[in-house]
Specification:
Length: 328
């Protein structure tokens, strides 16, 4: 007999084993340490909500949401990112994910989580849209630059001294958030507590954060990532944050990031983001090409709230790779 229930301590071993059976991408093989980091109360926005379906002693389906603190216009609230949609292969195509999701989103609503966003894969997308109340929000294209263009773009960079490695996200990053956040409408809150958890406390992957400084003042930052797939070394620009209208700082962020990747001799650099035409223009100017990858971001309302209509308007969002804990 099948049973839907909340996660209980010890389930993570079976969930990790299920994830290992289902995840086909070698560059996205998650370790058990990633599970504890992602789902536990280490997250400054709070513990995740996790539901499973079991048959006998076997967990056959799983769905969870990770809380994220967002600025939504003039309010800060806790929303969530749905991740870990998994169904044991022989149980697929029976609607199990929907039944688990119903319980999950009921709990989210009861805990005042007004909306949830997610990045379903091709198989899960239809279920999310047809049976779970999600709506399309954004389709991301990928910006890419390859080794010859990277090296060419970094030949005449003269402002590298202002681009410095970050060992810890300190009070300067809280001040940067306070200074720049009013320029954004809907955005994940990028304070020091969140940034340290997201990028420096993750135990299974190394990120490379850098800050741009002018006269000792932090003006913006980027977070970079390296990973190898077979013989190809790739770089990601995971996150960019600054005053949305500060072209000088954004240019220095891109220049510094490309210089780092050039020094690492990467074969290509990719990123995707939404909500800043200025950043896109700087990327274009440095030689990035936009590829139509159509990565879907979907959203569902868990309950009515003040900005229920506005959060479904893609024009209001700022979003980068780093705003997902599922892949990047």
């Amino acid at each position: 007999m099948m049973k839907i229930r909340l996660y209980k301590e010890g389930d993570e071993i079976k969930l990790w084993e299920l994830d290992r059976r289902l995840e086909v991408h070698p560059w996205n093989r998650r370790e058990l340490s990633n599970w504890y980091w992602k789902y536990s109360d280490q997250n400054p926005a709070g513990k995740s909500f996790i539901w499973v379906m079991e048959e006998g002693n076997n967990i056959v389906a799983h769905f969870a949401v990770v809380p994220y603190r967002l600025q939504v216009f003039d309010e800060e609230l806790v929303a969530s990112h749905s991740i870990g949609a998994m169904v044991e292969p022989k149980y697929q195509n029976r609607g199990l994910l929907k039944f688990v999701g119903d319980k999950l989103f009921e709990e989210a609503a009861q805990n005042n989580i007004p909306f949830t966003y997610g990045f379903p894969n091709e198989k899960a997308y239809r279920v999310h849209r047809t049976h779970m109340g999600y709506e399309d929000l954004i389709e991301f294209d990928t910006w890419k630059i390859t080794r010859p263009a990277i090296d060419k773009s970094t030949l005449n960079i003269t402002d590298s001294a202002s681009f410095r490695p970050v060992k810890e996200f300190d009070d300067d990053f809280d001040r940067l958030w306070d200074l720049c956040s009013e320029k954004y409408k809907i955005v994940v809150v990028r304070n020091k507590a969140y940034l340290n958890w997201r990028y420096l406390e993750r135990p299974d992957w190394k990120y490379y954060p850098f800050g741009v400084y002018a006269n000792g003042e932090l003006k913006g930052y980027s977070v970079l990532k390296l990973y190898r797939e077979d013989k190809l070394l790739r770089g990601h620009i995971i996150d960019i944050f600054a005053d949305l209208h500060d072209e000088d700082t954004i240019t220095k962020i891109i220049n510094g990031s490309l210089s780092f990747f050039s020094e690492q001799k990467v074969d290509e650099v990719t990123c995707w983001l939404w909500g800043s035409r200025l950043i896109e223009q700087v990327l274009e100017g440095k030689g990035f090409i936009k590829e139509a990858t159509r990565i879907p971001l979907v959203i569902r309302l868990n309950k009515e709230f003040k900005y229920a209509g506005e959060v479904k308007d893609k024009k209001s969002w700022y979003f980068t790779m780093g705003d997902s804990t599922e892949i990047f």
